[in-house]
Write a structure and sequence with these properties.
- The protein is an alpha+beta fold.
- It has 3 domains: 2-84, no CATH class; 88-163, GMP Synthetase, Chain A, domain 3; 192-250, no CATH class.
- The protein has 7 helices and 8 strands, in the order ββββαβαββαβαααα.
- It has helices spanning 57-66, 86-113, 144-154, 165-172, 196-201, 208-211, 226-236; strands at 2-10, 13-20, 30-34, 39-46, 79-83, 118-124, 130-136, 157-162.
- The strands form 2 sheets. A 5-stranded antiparallel beta sheet has the order 2-1-4-3-5. It has a 3-stranded mixed beta sheet with strand order 6-7-8, sandwiched between helices.
- Strand 7 (130-136), helix 3 (144-154) and strand 8 form a beta-alpha-beta unit.
- The longest helix is centred in the middle third of the chain and has 28 residues, at 86-113.
- The chain is globular.
- The protein starts with a strand and ends in a 32-residue tail after the last helix.
- The relative contact order is 0.10.
Length: 268
């Protein structure tokens, strides 16, 4: 019998994998995962995610419906081979050191090609057959020359992954305005849709500085208590009022612009 687990390979790199029930995996266990073209060391985040199945084709169909596009682990679901041994953990630490060296070398090549991109994180696969670089940029980046350059430099398969500002914050981590570590880098499994209406329904100040996180987007914590406020709003039939002195800039009336008088040129 087999079941499904969610594993984390590195910062910003998580996916589901199939594991035999005999392994008796628990949250926090380090395991060796076989992907389509390489092997990696991963940490079990959660699971089992579903009921045990005899055939793994059931998991492939489920993944095809929920996850589309290109995957870092390949087109097929990864398989958990075994729990990581002491030798595996030693090799994992060595790979982290090698990934750090590769990170600084990649920064030099980015400067050489004069690309407007920010390199965030670098990860080496367990068998050192894959090197993943995660970066952020304002727009699309043509990194084909850089990709060929890095492949010739490290002699491995190189993967360049562009992430958004919210993913960048989750990878780097930090301390929020509440004094606690970022939710996205600690326990949030994925990002949900957040809008200003959530803050308005909770009677919060709509000042962007108060409801925006370090990533510049609306705070993820706006979703935590929104269901309670909506239930109370439906029961009472009243909407919480936003303080008049803290209205958003978009709702404030625009001030009329003064026309500048043209300076008269001196007559000759």
């Amino acid at each position: 019998m087999k079941t499904l687990y969610k594993v984390n390979v590195s910062a910003g790199l998580s996916y589901n994998c199939v594991a035999d029930c005999d392994l008796q995996l628990q949250e926090g266990d380090m395991i060796i995962v076989r992907c389509e073209k390489y092997q990696d060391c991963a940490k079990v985040e959660s699971g089992p995610l579903c009921e045990p199945q005899e055939d793994s084709s059931f998991f492939e169909k489920t993944r095809g419906k929920s996850c589309r596009g290109r995957h870092i682990e390949g087109q097929k679901l990864p398989v958990a081979l075994r729990k990581a041994s002491v030798e595996d953990m030693v090799k994992c630490q060595e790979n982290k050191l090698k990934a750090r060296e590769a990170h600084f070398k990649a920064l030099e090549r980015i400067r050489f090609h004069k690309l407007d991109m920010k390199l965030i994180h670098t990860h080496y696969a367990h068998d050192r057959k894959l090197l993943v670089f995660q970066f952020s940029a304002e727009g699309r980046i043509d990194f084909r020359e850089l990709l060929r350059d890095l492949g010739a430099l490290f002699h491995v398969r190189v993967e360049l992954r562009q992430v958004g500002v919210r993913d960048e914050t989750a990878i780097l981590g930090g301390i929020g305005s509440c004094g606690r570590p970022f939710c996205c880098s600690t326990f949030l499994p994925n990002f949900c849709s957040i809008n200003v209406k959530m803050a308005k329904q909770q009677g919060l100040s709509l000042n962007p500085q108060n409801i925006s996180g370090a990533c510049g987007r609306l705070k993820c914590c706006l979703q935590y208590e929104i269901d309670f406020y909506r239930e109370q709003q439906q029961a009472s039939g009243k909407e919480p009022e936003t303080p008049e002195d803290e209205e958003p800039e978009a709702s404030r009336p625009a001030r009329p612009r003064r026309r500048k008088k043209k300076s008269e040129e001196p007559k000759q």
